[in-house]
Amino acid sequence: ARVHELIVNCDVFINVPVLKHHGGSTVTAGMKNMMGVVWDRRFWHKNDLHQCIADFATYRRPNLTVLDAYRVIKKNGPKGVSVGDVSLMKSLLVSPDIVAIDAAGAKMFGVEPHEVKYIPLAHEAGVGNSNTDSLRIKRIKI
Amino acid sequence: MFQRHLKKLRVVTGLLFFLFTAFIFLDFRNILTSAQFKGILFLQFVPSLIKFVNLLSLASAGFIIILLLTALCGRVYCSAICPLGIFQDMVSFISRIFRKKKKSFHFSQPWTKLRYTILAITVLSLLAGSTFVLGLLDPYSNFGRFVSDFVRPLFIKLNNGIASILEKRDIFFLYPVDLVKVNLLTFIFPALMLILVVVLSFGRGRLYCNTVCPVGSLLGLLSKISFFKIKINTTSCTQCGKCSKVCKSECINIKDQSVDFSRCVDCFNCLAACPENAIRLNLVPHKAIAVVPEVETTGNERRAFLAKSLALTVGAAGLSSLAFSQSKAETSVKKNVVCPPGSKGIKHFTDTCTSCHLCVSACPTKVLQPAFMEYGILGMMQPRMDYSTSFCNYDCTLCSEVCPTGAIQQLTKEVKQQTQIGVAHFTVTNCIVFRDNTSCGACSEHCPTKAVNMVPYKGELTIPEVNPKICIGCGGCEYACPARPEKAIRVIGHELHQKALKPREEKLKPVDTSQDFPF
Questions:
Q1: How far is CA A68 from the centre of its chain?
Q2: Which residues are bridge partners to B230 per DSSP?
Q3: Contact A108 B454 (CB under 8 A)
Q4: Which of B119, B263, B305, B441 could tie B249 with a disulfide, CB 3.0–4.6 Å?
Q5: What 3-state DSSP class applies to B452?
Q6: Does the pLDDT value for residue B329 go beyond 50?
Q7: Calpha distance B489→B483 (Å, rounded)
Q8: pLDDT tens track for A41-63
């Protein structure tokens, strides 16, 4: 795929997605955010969206992913129709493992990771660990 | 004497109107506001006239000022305000620089029959229900098309070229702007008109203005009875002919020492050229027109001329109304042609639009594109929503703000967001989800009202479902759909725009963030 030159040239890659409902992929978090780097996104929609999301994550894993779950669009995503679609969750997830953070994000959202097809696909491809029980998670309340 | 300076005043005013009017079609950086667009176009005759007839508001009464000005001192509009006129002056000027011989103009007979036949056809086709001829011949609309269709792409290419050079030196005040692919067939008429105008003005000055242009012919009729007229003082005139040599309208007959004022465009070249100040704008004593003829004709000749013109006009009238009413009935408007929000429906839009392409230039997403046959042959060049090129931005009302004729009437954002210009229709057999059993959802992603919603299909797959009550026909879904060669979701335009319901607003239950983590 044709990508932005920065992802090819940069030394450190930090991914800062927002947690949202998505009509096509159920949830959008870290891996779906990477879709924005690609020029022809229509190709992804046309050729098995979930597989493309998982495949692209194998190209370059972000050094760090910071998932913004402060205000989460719970329905009518990713665009949303009105303020009524947003739920104030006041949360932030941080991880060097993009699959783990997507799995955790899915759970925060209210669906199981295996229900979001690209998460198990990425796990199988070895991009990261989607099993939240086996992850070391630090829960901090401010 | 003051009058010899009128030429300079005309040149400056003309240049200003030309530059500002051209600029609004080129302003891809949105330097000017739509209110300023309106101000610049206030005095353009045809759009102001059409808008007034449509809306009956004083804000669009610029044409009345032009009529009053013309009744006062002749066709000042043609030399100082009309952008096509000033463009022709530039072509004329350039054509004369490189000539060694034949630099001057000379008197020529008017093409009276052709002139008034064209005016009659224009008026009658309007009455028969088509703006095609008016739009084709209106000088403002022609100028708009020339700048929008031909100059703007070059202007943007220049910008993009300079921007990429500057970018390499870390200078970013210019940025590249996208150019979209257009249907070149829609450029046929604008190109033909451009060739006509350039050819005529290259050799014969304002011949277009005095033969083809219906505004010129109409204002010319009015200037026959204006209060002030350019006249030659036969006592101080030495018949040197300097005035005739600079007359772009070729209307000064130095042998008879007469000026055909219906063809005069008030450029005032003659006033500046005369060494004796013998040619001047003079207050004319107003009696019945027949008593002060401009050109000497005998009674018999005049009667024959009137009879011939009447016959021609009636003939032209009969033929043109027949042709236009027939072709309007026969030409099929393509079933899913969509006209922009604010245009109320296809009939109002195609009856009012003169295809100046200001909305095409102003549209930020470039969804408005000139039609070829989508509105039928009489709608060629009128803009339509082209969802294969782009989509209509949910928060934008620019086209309705800039339209000078009122073909697209101004809307507030709130009204626009409930204006249903068409409805999305889903064809399941074309859909990626149906064909390949993989997820897509591109259409729903782009729907601003979520009229296109993903509903459970097979297994974990979801498939789009359209709610026609809240769909506004913006084309976001059609534009995003990746299915080829046929898209799975397309907007079918309404002949008459409808009102959509507001999208459902259900508030979520607030999350208790003081509790433990969800997992």
A1: 11
A2: B281
A3: no
A4: B263
A5: strand
A6: no
A7: 9
A8: 999 999 999 999 999 999 999 99
**Predicted confidence (pLDDT) per residue in B376-415, tens digit:** 999 999 999 999 999 999 999 999 999 999 999 999 999 9
Q: Where are the alpha helices (DSSP H) in chain A?
A: 5-9, 30-33, 41-46, 49-57, 98-109, 118-124
Q: Which residues of A touch B460 (CB under 8 A)?
A: 115, 117
Alpha-carbon distance A61 to nearest alpha carbon in chain B (angstroms): 23
pLDDT of residue B290: 47
In this complex, the residue of B444, B484, B517 whose CB is nearest that of residue A139 is B517
Nearest to B432 among A22, A46, A88 (CB): A46
ipTM entry:
0.88
H or E stretch including B222? helix B214-223
Percent of chain A with pLDDT over 70: 100
- What band does B508 get if pLDDT is binned at 50, 70 and 90? confident
- Helices B214-223 + B45-55 axis angle, to 10: 90
Dihedral of the CA atoms B34, B40, B42, B43 (nearest 10)? -160
In angstroms, the separation between the Cα of residue B393 and the nearest Cα of chain A is 13
Average pLDDT over chain B, rounded to an integer: 90
Going A58 to A60 to A66 to A71, the CA torsion angle's sign is negative
- Token readout for B77 is 């509009």
pLDDT reading at A74 higher than 80: yes
pLDDT at residue B318 is higher than 80: no
| Nearest CB partner across the interface for A84, out of B432, B444, B508 | B508
- Res B52: pLDDT: 92
**Contacts with B482 from chain A: Cβ below 8 Å:** 42-43, 45-46
- Residue B297's φ and ψ, nearest 5 degrees, are -135, 155
Residue B205 clears pLDDT 50, i.e. is over it = yes
Q: Given this model, what pLDDT does residue A83 score? A: 87
The token pair at B287 is 């009696």
Report the residue of chain B nearest A137, measured CA to CA.
B519
| B419 secondary structure, DSSP code | E
| pLDDT above 80 (res B63) | yes
Question: Two tokens at B31?
Answer: 């330097």
Contact indicator for A24, B481 with CB cutoff of 8 Å? no
| Chain A contact probe: residue of B426, B461, B486, B508 with most A CBs at under 10 A | B508
Please name the helix (run of DSSP H) or strand (run of DSSP E) that holds residue B40, with its range, or none: helix B34-41
Task: Please state, in angstroms and rounded to a whole number, the distance separating the CA atoms of residues B192 and B474.
Answer: 33
Q: How far is B437 from chain A (nearest CA, A)?
A: 8
CB contact under 8 A, B518 and A108: yes
Phi and psi for B398 in degrees, rounded to 5? Answer: -55, -45
Find out whether B270 and B281 touch, Cβ atoms under 8 Å: no
* Contact flag A45-B440 (C-beta cutoff 8 Å): yes
Contact: A23, B454; criterion CB under 8 Å: yes
Average pLDDT, integer, range B202-224: 95
pLDDT on residue B284: 86
Q: How many CB atoms lie within 10 A of CB B277?
A: 13
